[in-house]
């Protein structure tokens, strides 16, 4: 089996272990309908909407850092310098929302997000700033089992960072660098971009087809030039006019119409392909063809979107924050949590019913419920309650004689 895997790797049929040198992808998709870059891809509405949905959704979720007790359970919120940065203002230019949006924009499009860590104090133990470096400016280099991050500042100036100076969040890949979704879906994005260009060209041209003037005779060069000039508005321009052709001449359209090339179907398929690439249900980027799924089905769609797409991103970010921003000796002491409950928040009626069940069964205190709703705590609200009207038959039988005695005394 090992020999077969090695042979497969030689021919590019399987992932290979990273070797010393530049880890940035050197093989790119060449057969595309149009050249695909980050800027051109972002002009495709499905790409822009998918990336924005992921970036804005995750950026809107609160970030907390908790202290764990000796059993590994969450005890209390941590009063740590790093969570103050992540919760409010990671650097002098961005607040938390803006910072996380940029981080997710890089991660979702390139498969990698790089953040420069600025430290001060004794042994550089205190982090004072987190600054994102856009992925296109970073090169990952593996040298003697050490990772070097090289930032391209200008065309002639670069700057190298050690592994501990960069917070690197990556999607699945070779372990050193994540795979780029845009790069590996260039064909689908190129088709979508080319389709948009075709529609733009048609609309700019008044949706007029190209064609030829058919005649029985053989006009000379001057006559053909005169006909082209006179009848040019048949195939170009957005103005309408009433053409008058000679008696023995007719216009024959020779370009394919949008229906001939199934342009609408191509755009529809491209939307699904792009949404599939980012793991986003197409209905969440305003795909109206599945409008019947709205209503009772939207709750299931959002729940599945959270479980199978958002949750992996959140777990990846939480663990990366801990291992990159907290000293190794404190990994067992702290835990980061990105609160995703907001997007799964049920209606008020459903929440009241759930809270009533949780309080009556001793799962949560009234003040825990109030904190979850953002309300002020009340005195006496930290007690757990349990309904006593439900008990085993043995317990009821033991209480029966005492109840009878009380009745006779009365």
TrEMBL record:
It comes from the Bacteria. NCBIfam families: portal_HK97. This is Portal protein. It comes from Psychrobacter pacificensis.
């Amino acid at each position: 089996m090992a020999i077969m895997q090695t042979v497969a790797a030689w021919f590019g049929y399987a992932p290979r272990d990273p070797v010393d040198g530049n880890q940035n992808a050197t093989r790119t998709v060449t057969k595309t309908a149009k050249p695909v870059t980050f800027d051109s891809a972002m002009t495709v509405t499905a790409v822009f909407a998918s990336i924005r949905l992921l970036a804005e959704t995750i950026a809107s979720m609160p970030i907390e850092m908790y202290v764990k007790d000796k059993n590994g359970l969450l005890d209390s919120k941590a009063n740590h310098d790093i969570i103050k940065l992540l919760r409010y203002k990671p650097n002098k230019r961005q607040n938390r929302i803006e910072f996380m949006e940029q981080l997710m924009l890089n991660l979702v499009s390139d498969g990698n997000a790089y953040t420069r860590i600025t430290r001060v104090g004794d042994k550089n133990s205190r982090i004072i700033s987190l600054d994102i470096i856009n992925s296109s400016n970073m090169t990952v280099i593996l040298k003697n089992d050490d990772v070097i991050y090289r930032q391209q500042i200008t065309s002639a100036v670069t700057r190298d960072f050690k592994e501990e100076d960069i917070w690197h969040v990556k999607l699945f890949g070779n372990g050193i660098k994540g795979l780029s979704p845009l790069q590996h879906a260039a064909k689908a994005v190129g088709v979508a971009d080319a389709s948009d260009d075709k529609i733009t060209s048609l609309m700019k041209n008044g949706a007029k087809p190209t064609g030829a003037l058919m005649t029985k005779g053989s006009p000379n060069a001057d006559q053909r030039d005169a006909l082209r000039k006179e009848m040019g508005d048949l195939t170009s321009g957005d103005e309408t006019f009433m053409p008058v052709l000679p008696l023995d001449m007719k216009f024959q359209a020779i370009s394919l119409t949008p229906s001939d090339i199934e342009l609408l179907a191509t755009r529809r398929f491209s939307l699904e392909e792009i949404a599939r690439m980012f793991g986003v249900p197409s209905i969440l980027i305003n795909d109206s063809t599945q409008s019947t799924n709205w209503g009772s089905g939207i709750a299931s769609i959002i729940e599945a979107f959270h479980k199978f797409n958002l949750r992996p991103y959140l777990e990846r970010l939480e663990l990366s924050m801990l291992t990159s921003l907290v000293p190794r000796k404190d990994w067992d002491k702290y835990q980061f949590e990105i609160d995703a409950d907001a997007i799964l928040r049920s209606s008020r009626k459903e929440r009241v019913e759930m809270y009533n069940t949780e309080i009556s069964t001793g799962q949560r205190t009234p003040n825990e419920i109030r904190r979850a709703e953002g309300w002020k705590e009340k005195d006496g609200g930290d007690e757990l309650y349990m309904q006593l009207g439900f008990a085993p038959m043995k317990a009821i039988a033991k209480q029966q004689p005492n109840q009878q005695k009380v009745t006779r005394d009365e």
